[in-house]
Amino acid sequence: MDTPIAAPAALRARYAPLAWFAGAFLTIEFLTRLALLVKTGSGVPLDPRYWLYAFGVGLGYDLVAFIYVAWPLVLFLWLVPRRVFATRPLRAALALLLLAMLYGLLFVTAAEWLFWDEFASRFNFIAVDYLVYSREVIGNIRASYPVGKVLAALALLAGLVLYLTRRQWRPREDASRLRQRSGVTLAWLLLTIVVSYAVDGEYKNATANEYVNELSGNGVYEFFSAYRNNELDWRRFYRTLPDGAAFQRTRELLKTPEAEFVGDDPRSITREIRNPGPEKRLNVILVSVESLSADYLTAFGGTKNVTPNLDALASKSLFFTNLYASGTRTVRGLEALSLSVPPTPGQSIVKRPDNENLFSLGSVFGGKGYDSMFVYGGYGYFDNMNYFFSHNGYRTVDRSDIPRDQVHHGNIWGVADEDLFTLALREADRAAAAGQPFFEHVMTTSNHPPFTYPADRIDLPSGKAGRAGAVKYTDWALGDFLARAASKPWFDDTVFVITADHCSSSWGRSAIPMNRYHIPLLIYSPKHVEPGRVDRLMAQIDIPPTLLGLLDFSYTSQFYGYDLFKLEPGRERVLLGNYQKAGYLRGDVLTVLAPKKHATQTLPKFDNSGDATPLDAPQPELVDDAIAYYETASERFSEGLMRIPAQVTPPAKAAPN
């Protein structure tokens, strides 16, 4: 029988490798957090309270993550019999296990550094998506970084640490019994269950500085938390209004002079939009440019001269200067530009199941006899784009439709933008030759890491000038596209709409930094659209109804967006968010709804600081407006209320031969 003294001593000998791994894990996490803090720079003020919070709360999340990560070692130490524990083969097996676990930690650290570099965030649902589309992500990383050297360096570092600390983890003779070890494993299991239910990733978000909140997390924990919460049920996680109140309030918010509700169903937002005058059956080419932040343009303070063509085009276009993107990813921009719905938390509707036959901009054009197309420079299976568009009133055309000998340049994300625009021109020519008006939604890819493009197009080297080079190349490609389009017989009767899917970076000090959502919009048609400047506040979901209004289309609508030119002054608002937070900007007040049924209100700054000042006097009516928008959008999708009758939606057409 074990004595009370012998049992702990035996367990200490047995579990020395676990103690060693705990020290290694916490040291690596501390250094990772310190490195990310330094990288953030002025984003975290020189305030010891912020540092103590980040490292103190971060230690708590590190310990929780360690409980999960250590399970392979806990099982190993539990099951290995005493008689072989200190033998040479067992020592080699343990060394391999520890080497693999240590290498995994260092690999995650390197991945977190790269992820922070792009998103200024610990792992979130974007990282989960990246696992799904590993081909594109791995290809991007291989093109952007010396992957082989990095992996070799990590392996060398892991081996060196393991060798130098071998006295701490090396197995020794122990007198532990299976019963004792089973008690440890059972306790570990109970601890895992407790922290799984008691700890939530939202607990850390208690400061007004989002960088500090992110630093307080743990990358491993945040990854699995994001995987578990990839889709968020509004009623479970967010504030709601009493039954019926959300729809009643939304209907009031959607009333506009040119719209009349259809029927008396209190849960319907279907309206008849009636515009005066004959409909302008003009062709439309809508270009959503990857990561085109407004501040690249000189009109918004850009000083790098990377958008000379867009800068010149702004004076010839209807130029909207106060537009804000719905979200921080391409699928959010596509959702806004096709469905005109608020960015409900979790995944974009583009990627959710049961997203077929929804009311869309493509279905409106299709109902008018247009050939509606989604034209993409990459492979449209990525982010579920082809499936979504082909089941919602568009036909899809992508990289697979471009002959290889017509590609000037391509990378893992897609062909060069000039080749994408050649594809768009080809499809426009085919529709025009068939005597059919066309609507093309063209999505670019060149302004994306690894930022490569054909040589000799601009004065910045491909892949070496970073995003500045990619932006300047995309600007060149847009200028070249419009010049080529001008020679086409259909040019005079075409409206070109140029905007962005989202900004090039998305994180700041506040929960929703407004400067990270500011995007441009240019509507250009020399024969039909008078140039001018529009400074009114505008949401990305307002683009579809505003465009249709410019064409004087009358149609049945389920859009949440406004036709900005029909909307009474003072009613402008913006709906925007990230994967968990839902924002509503009205006037100078930003209301943010978050999980755990939280709601905050701030006075955001629109400069590069990304700061926001807490609102002194709460405005509950704005909170209720925000809830109404997001609650009804969530319910309408989950209950199938966004669908339109199958016979109303023109079937997606096969691409012409």
Textual characterization of the structure:
One of its GO terms (molecular function) is transferase activity. InterPro entries: Alkaline_phosphatase_core_sf, OpgB/LTA_synthase_biosynth, Sulfatase_N. Keywords: Cell membrane, Membrane, Transferase, Transmembrane, Transmembrane helix. The structure is a single chain. It is globular and about 90 Å long. The strands form four sheets. Strands 3, 4, 5, 6, 9, 10, 11, 12 and 13 form a nine-stranded mixed beta sheet that branches. Strands 15-16-17-18-19 form a five-stranded antiparallel beta sheet, with helices on one face. A three-stranded antiparallel beta sheet has the order 1-2-14, with no helix packed on it. It folds into two domains: 6-230, no CATH class; 245-638, Alkaline Phosphatase, subunit A. Helix 5 (88-119) packs across helix 8, helix 14 packs across helix 22 and helix 19 runs parallel beside helix 20 (466-485). The chain is built from 22 helices and 19 strands. Strand 17 (589-594) and strand 18 form a beta hairpin. It is an alpha/beta fold and 657 residues long.
